[in-house]
Amino acid sequence: MLLGIDTGGTYTDGVLLDSRQQVIAKAKALTTHQDLVIGIRNCLINLQEHDGKQVHDWQQIRLVSLSTTLATNAVVEGRGCEAGLLLIGGEPAGTLPTQHYAVLQGGHDISGNPQADLNPGEIRATLAQWQGKVDAIAISGYLSVRNPEHELRVRELVGEVLGVPVVCAHELTSSLGFQERTVTAVLNAKLIPVIQALMVSVKTVLREFKIQARLMIVKGDGTLMTEEGAMAKPIETLLSGPASSIVGATALTGAERAIILDMGGTTTDIAVLKDGVPKVNPAGATVGGWLTRVRAAAIFTYGLGGDSYIKIDNKGQVLVGPQRVWPLAMAAGQYPYLVEELQEQLEAVWTVPFAQPADSYIFLKDKTPLTLNEVESAALENLKSGPHTHLTLAKQLGIEPHFLNLQRLVEFGLLVKASVTPTDLLHVRGSYTPGNVSAARLGIKMMAHRLGVSAEEFIDLALHQVTEKLSLALLASMLNYTKGSGHSKGSLQAEIFLDELFAPCPERPLNLSVQVNFPVIAIGAPVKDYLPKVAEKLQCRLIIPEHSEVANAVGAASGWQIETLEALIRHTAQGDFILHSPWERRTFADLTEAKDYARRQFEEAAACSAEKAGVVDYEVMVNFADEHLAGTSYAKGLYLYTKVQAAIIGRPHWLDAD
């Protein structure tokens, strides 16, 4: 069997697949960010007790594969370890994700020749100043992709002086772009403890269940990497969760051409599938405002999910997202006393400009660089014993509700709100009821009262907003995919179009309609409640496959290992050919010799990679693309360079026991 685990922002999903990649069992458990072990353990317990009985022999599992949003969320939230950055031969061209950096002499030119020699004394002195201040080091040399010798030498010195994990930029990407390559290296260094914590948590649970199997993780392009690879290059797990959903949707449907929509608790992710594969972003993934050189699928992400915050603005408009809160139904399911507090808050009919009628607060942490005022400190201390509604907390602190403004604590992640969400709407409608329905109903009554409508009318208004935002997200994603011009998903024209599309009127001179030619594959627990209406309006075929609610975990267990390597062969003015590979810079007398050497290098790397991953059936494809002067035919003297690309494709041989 294969075990797929997806550690998401809200839920940890698990699936067991058999040798034909059919789903044997599936389960969910809440992700426990304070201790990942708890959520992963609960997921496997639920998986083991499938259909109310223990039916699985964990000894049959030969592969455990993970997908996760942890790396993506860490970059977005600015978390990770303290990383030092050594820049060789170049100043930073923009903002960096670290305060600890130094510029060293050295670096190379476009041909891979040194600009200046390294100064070991300077490097050792710099590293000595960082002793005890940094947990990892990133090294980025100017044009190191043309010659990595300086980065490799500095790595040796870091090992001698500090003995902390080291990341070299040339090992993460072969693309030009000093700033982007540098940012990628720093983020990679910062993410090492994040992925390490996930791996340790998973392996702890696997030991508890006596599961002895290879451990793999999904990369941002949907392919698999080894545990060792993830520890060395955690940056490649950016967008792992959304990429895994693409693989899962494809595995569950066999689709070759489709739009894949994954609606989770926090976001909705959309990708376009063509010829069975998603488009890969050629510039690299942009996460948290940082442009990286990480290979990732072109995924469009929108702040809309089951846990999106439903608000009423000062104009009386119902808004959904992009902020995430706890659904009242789930909060009261864990803390039942909140129902009584919500009832009291409903009867009080209170209004403050910085809070919604049903707002409650849940403690997360108290470590912060903020200087807290007296009310904030008292509120944090009070909530450590359990969450409370806005009104109850104000009473316990002895202040008026309109003086209790805890927005700063929410923004800095010390508290999280519980309030009305799309999940609560579904609880009251009866289509999804794992939580406390009474709490959801009370919250909706408060919102309806503020808006001056009935509870049913409010639910209709809020559901309409969810459906409209999903439709707009689909349209924007398809425009971005086809035009690649970053069309604004919130443009006035698009909003007018959607208004006309969703509320046609026979008395108007013009009614609009749209037809989407690709089928929409919808995955995620809430899609069955929203997507039929979207598909009707967009006139497209909707596919909600069986097991769609755990498609991410299916994708984790269904992936292939594909490793890509790149090199460049350049022609010099002296008539030589220089090979710039991920390992070295080497000169050859003729092009054929350079190509043969590059092929042997990549084949040796493939064999080593396959051995580490437990892959016995793999294929190595090496392609050489010669470039010549534009507008000329092939002739001696007009040759410019050769791009060398290699792909190592295989599946871990999990059927054979170790």
From TrEMBL:
Hydantoinase A/oxoprolinase domain span: 181-323
GO molecular function: 5-oxoprolinase (ATP-hydrolyzing) activity
Gene Ontology CC: cytosol
Residue span, Hydantoinase/oxoprolinase N-terminal domain: 3-161
InterPro entries in UniProt: ATPase_NBD (IPR043129), Hydant_A_N (IPR008040), Hydantoinase_A (IPR002821), Oxoprolinase-like (IPR045079)
Pfam families with a match to the protein in the record: Hydant_A_N, Hydantoinase_A
Taxonomic superkingdom: Bacteria
Coiled-coil regions listed in the entry: none
BP GO terms, sorted: glutathione metabolic process
Signal peptide: none
Name of the featured protein: Hydantoinase/oxoprolinase
Native species: Desulfitobacterium hafniense (strain DSM 10664 / DCB-2)
